Amino acid sequence: MKQIALLILVGLIVSQSHFAQATQADDTTITIDGQTAGVTPFIAQLTLTASDTTVLKSIQFTITPKTGSVTRPLSATYSMDFLIERGYLVPPSNQIFLPVYGLYHSYANDVALTYFFLDGSSKGDSTTVATGSFTDPECSYESPTVLQARTSDTTLSYDYMMVRGACGDFSPVVLDTDSALRWSKLSNWALRGRLWHHWKLFRAVEPSFTSIRRMARV
């Protein structure tokens, strides 16, 4: 009997220790249920389901650069307040719609997700986002004239740049320093003023400026 009682006591201690050490990341299940193509090949929307959204602090996505790329990964973090404000999460629903932008077109993009919780814990997941093709015969963004190619030992303080102009129906665009297209204007945007400031792209919408998206976090 003493041995049985000792085994039961040990089992209770181990069980209590597990619950004492469990984090919100451990206790929360988040699944990637699907994805929807965006209005351009450079953006898509992931559909997530969380067992409890109230313990989430933020969600980060990171797009793995192509093989041979010398750019740092394009990454952005959404706070839960932002997702709720924009209607990507409508409590008490546990479904989250997560925009992922800066994707390579015509490519199977490896996208890593990191979930951050209020208790400081985190965990990750990943998925593949296959994108359609992008064709721009007017501006030749896909076949630039390279004056000096970037190499793996070239150190730059930036990896992305906006190219402004009235060229074609999709300008301005965002290129990375490998010269790959990572974002384009919607074709129905009027050609008004555009501004790239503090990793945000703005366009003129009278009578004020409206923030469109933060394109990168380096």
Q: What does this protein look like?
A:
This protein is mainly beta and 218 residues long. It has a domain at 24-130: Immunoglobulin-like (Sandwich). The chain has 3 helices and 13 strands; from the N terminus they run ααββββαβββββββββ. The protein has helices at 2-21, 24-27, 80-85; strands spanning 30-37, 43-50, 56-63, 74-79, 95-101, 108-117, 122-130, 160-163, 173-176, 181-184, 194-197, 200-205, 208-214. It has a 4-stranded antiparallel sheet with strand order 4-3-6-7. It has a 3-stranded antiparallel sheet with strand order 1-2-5, with no helix packed on it. Strand 6 and strand 7 (122-130) form a beta hairpin. The protein is elongated. The model is unreliable at 206-218 (pLDDT under 50).
What is the oligomer described by this structure? single chain
DSSP E strands, number: 13
Mean pLDDT score, rounded? 82
What is the name of the CATH topology of the domain at 24-130? Immunoglobulin-like
Summarize the structure.
The chain is mainly β and 218 residues long. It has 3 helices and 13 strands, in the order ααββββαβββββββββ.
Key features?
single chain, 218 residues, mainly beta, Immunoglobulin-like, four-stranded antiparallel sheet, three-stranded antiparallel sheet, 13 strands, elongated, disordered C terminus
